[in-house]
Amino acid sequence: MLTEIWAPLLGGLVLLILGGDFLVRGAVQVAERLGVSPLVIGLTLVGFGTSMPELVTSVRAALSGAPGIAYGNIVGSNIANILLIVGASALVTPVVVARAALRRDAAVMLVVAAVFAALALVVPFGPLVGGGFVLALVAYIWLTIQQERRGAPTGALHDKEVALGAVDPALEPGAKRPAIWTALALALGGLVAILLGGGLLVDGAVTLARTFGISETVIGLTIVAIGTSMPELVTSLVAALRRQGDVAFGNIVGSNIYNILGIGGATALIAPGTVPVEIARFDALVMLGVTLLLVLVAATGLKVDRREGGVLLAGYGIYLFALWP
Q1: What is the largest CA-CA distance in the chain?
Q2: Rounded Cα gap, residues 267 and 181, in angstroms
Q3: Quick check: 39 pLDDT over 60?
Q4: Beta strands 303-304 and 95-96: pairing type?
Q5: What is the pLDDT of residues 243-298, one digit of tens each?
Q6: CATH number of 2-323, picked from 3.30.470.10, 3.20.20.190, 1.50.10.10, 1.20.1420.30
Q7: Where are the chain's structural domains?
Q8: How far apart are CA 188 and CA 201, in angstroms?
Q9: For the residues 8-36, what does the mean pLDDT come to?
Q10: Could you tell me which of 5, 14, 168, 181 has the fewest CB atoms within 10 Å of its CB?
Q11: pTM listed for this prediction
């Protein structure tokens, strides 16, 4: 019985992580071959590609009638990104915060978290909400591109590209590129792996919840959210080990913006539904609270030091203790 439950979960996570890597690597290489600007590649393909595992998981869960997993994945990932990943990264090395990232990107992260939390309490997430989220993401990326074309690349979306390149040398500038057909096959293979992995992960999560009588929402907020956040954990820790604390901060901020606007928006568009009341009344507010906490901590001295990182990690432990039955 345990094998039947955990095999799909673990297999799904492996496929999602590997598929996400292959998709991003292949898509970036195809775009480079077609002459797409490196700035545009970094701010769009990398961000969208690294969010595909979460997107497929949330959409598949919503379509399967498991909104607790769908929206628990989004909210739980953002909470884990801040408390678990920023906390762990700060313990490795203090996370330095660039003023530009704090002023523009962290402010956007806080605003979209507040909008998500407010809307989850009062309206269903249908085409209007989903379309608004997606348009907001497009506008944010467009404004970021315009600003960064006028100066040196900075900010959260650029940091996501740098963090991923540190983990996957094939994405670093100047790396040897394969033929376009090879890159295209790699991207398509990654997409197929993500689709299969998302299905396995959702099926395993639903089976786990039903077998042990645990709420699907709790499973989504914890196991699924932590699992789909593994790439962010790896890339942020590698950035911290390289003493690139500012990259670690931007990587998480960029991921949280994509999670709410991109994944939340697409999920609402493809599978309209209501955010489960337990998430709307508790977890979304926790997400908003820890987002505000991160912004306040980052604004004091423009860094998250080891002591503050320990507090964030302890906060995640308290959150899991309060959540898990």
Answers
A1: 58
A2: 31
A3: no
A4: antiparallel
A5: 776 677 887 888 899 999 999 999 999 999 999 999 999 999 999 999 999 999 98
A6: 1.20.1420.30
A7: 2-323
A8: 20
A9: 81
A10: 181
A11: 0.89
